[in-house]
Recover the amino acids of this structure.
């Protein structure tokens, strides 16, 4: 206790916040459990895709796993239980995109392919290309700028990409004035969120939300649009 003379008051010391850091052995044990959870999810036959796992307590009592797909937390927990693992299960749902035009006309015109085709069990490559109607400038964007849903002929979502868990890479390209400006292609796995569950051959629709591309110090929003997709045998 510290005495303050001359003012008739005494200052009491405040309790210090003690942060208990895990020991190296605890940290390694927790990371090992996280890897085991990841392997169980990735090796599962359920229609889901691993997104992340983590913990904050030293004893891993709050271990969690995040997946995207058409599953319930109970189904995932049952798979983990068979491997003597426990974790709180979080599900990232489909983005439920609704068709919408661009928020405002901009200097870039999006050029969409008339149709995309890929073989059964492969990945769909989706090229993005623009026409620059204005002066030369840089275009920057990447995986954080789009979401997608793959729909079957009845409008049911059979695959999707939603919230980003990790900070993705961004790309910058030079867009010449009044000319084509090809940009990054992105890939869509043609399965039900699991490479063990490839989608059958047939007709589908890829619904894409493309937003917040950086061009001429402004954010460009291209709305939500559909591209017909054919999966061949």
């Amino acid at each position: 206790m510290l005495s303050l003379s001359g003012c008739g008051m005494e200052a009491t010391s405040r309790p210090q916040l003690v942060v208990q850091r895990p020991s190296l052995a605890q940290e390694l044990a927790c990371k090992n459990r996280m890897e085991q959870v990841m392997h169980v999810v990735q090796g599962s036959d359920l229609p889901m895709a691993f997104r992340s796992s983590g913990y904050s307590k030293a004893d891993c009592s709050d271990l969690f796993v995040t997946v995207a797909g058409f599953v319930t937390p109970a189904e995932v927990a049952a798979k983990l239980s068979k491997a003597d693992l426990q974790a709180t299960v979080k599900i990232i749902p489909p983005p439920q995109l609704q068709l919408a035009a661009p928020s405002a006309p901009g200097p870039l015109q999006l050029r969409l392919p008339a149709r995309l085709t890929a073989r059964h069990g492969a990945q769909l490559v989706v090229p993005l290309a623009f026409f620059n109607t204005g002066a030369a400038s840089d275009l920057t964007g990447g995986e954080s700028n789009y979401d997608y849903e793959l729909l079957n002929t009845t409008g049911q979502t059979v695959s999707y990409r939603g919230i980003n868990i990790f900070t993705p890479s961004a790309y910058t390209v030079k867009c010449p004035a009044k000319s084509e400006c090809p940009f990054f292609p992105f890939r869509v796995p043609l399965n039900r969120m699991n490479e063990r569950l490839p989608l059958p051959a047939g007709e589908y629709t890829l619904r894409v939300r493309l937003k917040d591309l950086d061009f001429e110090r402004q954010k460009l929003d291209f709305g939500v649009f559909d591209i017909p997709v054919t999966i061949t045998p």
Remarks:
- Residues 65 and 89 are 5 Å apart (CA to CA).
